[in-house]
Amino acid sequence: MRQWKTDSWRNLKADHQPVYPEPEKLTEVEETLRKFPPLVFAGEVRDLKKALAEVSEGKKFLLQGGDCAESFAEFNADLIRDTFRVILQMAIILTAGVKMPVLKVGRMAGQFAKPRSSPTEAKNGVELPSYKGDIINDSEFSASKRRPDPERMLKAYSQAASTLNLLRAFSDGGYADLRHVQRWNMGFVKSDPQGKRYRHLAQQIQESLHFIEALGINSGNTPQLRQVQYFTSHEALLLPFEEAMTRVDSTSGDVYDTSAHFLWIGNRTRSLDSAHVEFCRGIQNPIGIKCGPSVDPDQLIRLLDTLNPNNVGGKITLINRFGCEEVGNYLQPLVKKVKEEGRSVVWSCDPMHGNTIKGNNGKKTRSFDQILEEVKMSLQIHSSEDSHLGGIHLEMTGQDVTECTGGLDDISENDLTHRYRTHCDPRLNANQAIELAFLIADEIKRNGHGN
Ligand code: PEP
Ligand code: CO
Predict the structure, then answer these.
(1) Same domain, yes or no: 434 and 296
(2) Relative to the alpha carbon of 270, which ligand is closest?
(3) Nearby residues of 79 by Cβ (< 8 Å), 6 or more positions away
(4) Pocket of ligand 1 (CB under 6 A)
(5) Are 202 and 304 within one domain?
(6) Cα of 196 from ligand 2 centre, angstroms
(7) Is 185's pLDDT higher than 60?
(8) Best probe residue, ligand 1, of 15, 67, 290, 423 (max atoms within 8 Å of C-beta)
(9) pLDDT one-digit tens code per residue, 202-234
(10) Which residue, of 141, 221, 266, 418, has the fewest CB within 10 Å?
(11) C-beta of residue 280 within 8 angstroms of C-beta of residue 264
């Protein structure tokens, strides 16, 4: 195999990269980024990898979620806090359902670059580069705003650093206290007559917490009740940025991409000879691979050979995103093949990206029922293959947006225009995310997973 270097990806075809009109400016930005401190640390990445190995062994469950695309304009402490809180709340519900620890990974603090189906967008006879995420260009449809600007990488770094700073404070500094986080549930569950479906599990959670407190175990004397481990992730799409954030760890001599703990390769850039696979094969971070209908079982094994030649547990997470109509055809052969070949992977289900439709008002949307259906079917397929679904990967927010239809509030296609705020794909809102956690917890119990 070719020798790997942080820049060996440059010898291969790199799809979905911007064409920067001023290459010298790009070089300057890369030099600057190379000198910046790491955003995450090698020891944390190793902790995550160990935890993911436990997910692959069925001892933990992975919850990965956050924005489709973070934005420079919508960046403030409340938004970060609300998404963080909903992820913690979902984690509690899932923990109670599956009776195992839930590993929490945000699509946050760096999820800025987007692959697009077309490199250009035309409006009223004008053709401009597509919006590719705030780290590359601006979504406003004008020639100057759509021009890719490398300096945006510096702004993305700075926003990721501030976001991480806040997340670290929330994780350690009392905000994640169980007593605080559990305040969610009763309001949500009681506010709606339909919420009675969830009351039983919600009550069980509260009773367990009271019982623990009655034993004298509380957040004052037990740090585990007030601190959480929280990791960050994004798609490793914009390779000049990822390369510039890559460092050699001084304690182990290993190479880590320090832009996030977990990086994934998107469905459009995961071919064996891609620059993205080349870059990812040399870094020690855990790697996700998005698997859509074009993935072939034999190719997938070759991809695993390249990205994880020593079959290290926790290194690879396979994220299926087939859509509820296709998952029945595509997932089973992959699961079977991976099992036959004795590969250690985490299986996670992204029920968002295969279920995107255009609503009648032209807005992209996803239906809550179809999202749930893909998770249910994935669970069943794993059960029937004597494998297990280790996690879920969601696009969601802590805000009360109207981007996906359905759920307890029964958002209709006509409601979408009320609070449609996403910069890219439609996200579950806070209530939909929590409801989904209840339903998935239920479904996992039904499939005999969990303890
Ligand atoms: C995404 O996760 O935002 C994404 C673009 O997914 P996929 O590569 O699976 O289409
Ligand atoms: Co998306």
Answers:
(1) yes
(2) 1
(3) 397, 398, 399
(4) 68, 115, 235, 266-268, 290, 321, 353
(5) no
(6) 32
(7) no
(8) 290
(9) 778 778 888 988 999 988 898 888 889 999 999
(10) 221
(11) no
Last residue of a domain, one of 166, 201, 226: 226
Residues 98-110 have pLDDT tens digits of 899 999 999 999 9
Q: Do 123 and 135 fall into the same domain?
A: yes
Task: Tokens 């990822």: give the residue.
Answer: 242
How many Cα atoms sit within 13 Å of 246 on the Cβ side?
Answer: 24
Q: Which amino acid is at 32?
A: T
Query: Between the CA of residue 218 and those of 81, 168, 176, 183, 201, what are the distances in Å?
Result: 23, 21, 13, 16, 21
Ligand 2 centre and the CA of 61: distance in Å? 22
Phi, psi (degrees; rounded to nearest 5) at 182: -70, -10
DSSP conformational letter for 195: G
- Find out whether 278 and 9 touch, Cβ atoms under 8 Å: yes
Angle at 231 between CA 304 and CA 131, to 5 degrees: 75
Q: Which of 226, 241, 263 is the last residue of a domain?
A: 226
Does position 289 have pLDDT exceeding 70, yes or no? yes
Residues 364 and 386 in one domain: yes
Query: What domain range is 201 assigned to?
Result: 177-226
Selection from 87, 78, 63, 77 nearest residue 181 by Cα: 87
Contact 338, 302 (CB under 8 A): no
The neighbour count for residue 415, using CB atoms within 10 Å, is 15
Clarify whether residues 429 and 325 are in a common domain.
Answer: yes
The contacts found for 188-191 with CB under 8 angstroms, 24 or more apart, are 188/431, 188/434
Q: Which ligand is nearest to the CA of 323?
A: 1
320 shares a domain with 423: yes
pLDDT in tens, 20-69: 999 999 999 999 999 999 999 999 999 999 999 999 999 999 999 999 99
| Ligand 1 midpoint to CA 255 (Å) | 25
Q: Quick one: pLDDT band at residue 366, thresholds 50, 70, 90?
A: very high
**The CATH number of the domain where 102 resides is what?**
3.20.20.70
If one counts the domains in the chain, the total is 2
Residue 451 domain-assigned (yes or no): no
